[in-house]
Input
Amino acid sequence: MFSLPFIDWTPIKPPTPEVETICQQVKPDIEQQAHKRYTTVTPLAFKAQYLPDFTNYKILIQADSDYLTFVVRDIHFRREPRVIALTFQPQ
Output
């Protein structure tokens, strides 16, 4: 059986321009999973997990008055990030 080695997440960091771009790219996925339309999506913090073929990002955002955490998988050769998990955060 093939298994990936355990890769730690980075420490929590402030958003970078790349993370801001990812948030805008996956905004439709976030809206679909949240069953809401958002006028603004602002990244607040993130951490990353760097693997050979893709990077996972765990991103905390403020979407209008909601706070959400989501995990995005960004496959390096496709450059099409996909939301793979979404969680509402208590305020």
About this structure: Helices lie at 17-34.
